[in-house]
Design brief:
Blueprint (H helix, E strand, L loop, with lengths): L1 H26 L13 E5 L2 E8 L13 E9 L5 E8 L2 E7 L9 E3 L4 E4 L5 E7 L8 E8 L3 E9 L22
Parallel strand pairs: 2-10
Antiparallel strand pairs: 1-2, 2-3, 3-7, 3-8, 4-6, 4-9, 5-8, 9-10
């Protein structure tokens, strides 16, 4: 019994470390210099890890009915075989499409083993088409992802809260306005 518990504990630590390594590119994994609160839901379906799944920050107020809202996430396949993200569903939009950076429909995304797939702004990502209701920053919605091998997983996904900067003059590269100018 003790050997089995030790093996389970080691496996749990290994999974935690693996998840940390997958996320290291964005979160610093506890690195005090890079600490921040990354958006998103994290999950696992079969060997596929899902990280930072979130609806993009509304640009000028909430997403309104009829809007298309970008949905971003990272995928990492710990399995032995390539999987594919086939699509997604939600009750808050007419459809969810996998699109290229320019918004044109693309179709399924390969998720090779041991490779981080970043579905995010400026790259292939998902798009919630024709929202059926208003979604404000901070709201949660359910989205189901469908994979060819791993199956389906339902996530409670957060709409990223808008970030406002009250005084950006202290940010690197910015200078205060000169008096009288």
């Amino acid at each position: 019994m003790r050997k089995r518990l030790t093996a389970q504990w080691r496996r749990g630590v290994l999974l935690l470390v693996t998840g940390c390594l997958v996320a290291a590119g964005a979160a610093g994994c506890g690195d005090a210099e890079n600490e921040h609160n990354p958006p998103g839901a994290n999950a696992r379906v079969g060997p596929v890890l899902i990280r930072y799944a979130h609806i993009a920050e509304p640009p000028d107020g909430p997403w309104e009915p009829g809007d298309d809202a970008p949905f971003y996430l990272w995928l990492f396949n710990q399995g032995e075989d390539t999987d594919r993200l086939l699509g997604a569903e939600t009750t808050v939009a007419r459809s969810v499409d996998i699109v290229r950076a320019d918004g044109t429909v693309r179709g399924p995304v390969d998720v090779p083993t041991r490779e981080l797939i970043e579905l995010e702004k400026g790259r292939t990502h998902l798009l919630l088409r024709n929202l059926s209701r208003q979604i404000r920053g901070g709201d949660y919605v359910w989205i189901t992802l469908r994979f060819e091998q791993a199956g389906e997983v339902a996530l409670q996904v957060h709409s990223q809260v808008p970030t406002y900067v009250e005084d950006a003059t202290d940010a690197p590269g910015l200078t205060s306005p000169s008096p009288g100018g």
